[in-house]
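Dear colleagues,

As part of the handover before I leave the project, I'm documenting each prediction I ran so the next person doesn't have to rerun anything. This entry is a single chain, and its sequence is reproduced below.
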Amino acid sequence: MGEYFLKNCVSFTPGINPSRIQTTDLEFYDQNDFVNDYNFINKVNIKDKSFDSENLLKLKEGDVVISVVTRQAAIVSKGNDGKILTLNFIKVDFDNDFLDKKYFLYLFNSYSGVKRQKERMLQGTGAVLKIPVKSLNDIEIPIISMSEQVKIGEAYKKTICLNNYLDKYKSLMEKCANSILEESVRGRRR
């Protein structure tokens, strides 16, 4: 179908500084929530939700968010439904029906062409470089047929889930091996 700029497909809503909110009974979306959503640890049910201008910064299950620190995108899970979007995150609103959310995740997180564009847009000093919200509009993405987008998006989700399981398995294997080796060292010292 062709190349499009993100501004032709989505719009962005930056989060707010939690210290500027007067009430304390709100739950905020944080980096740990993002990591769980990124790894599809919680089940996600993507539905079309009606627009509610009063709750613009309240996340809903199925929303897509970008971490400005890690420069990665994730889909909000049910456990994070209702949390407030903070300044380290940007909500992605899909303006039309020709971009699948999981395909967007693949493009934004893994597609080499988008990765190169994001690297050129980085701003800041020190260890943490961020992408400004305005720059996101100018990222160019390939749009293919919706059926192909869905296939690629599902394959990407399965890859992330499999990598998550492999990381857990690797951690368990290391703990088990270290335990056996330590026991061997202790047994020989006697």
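The CA atoms of residues 66 and 73 lie 4 Å apart. The first strand starts at residue 2 and ends at 5.

All the best with the project,
I.
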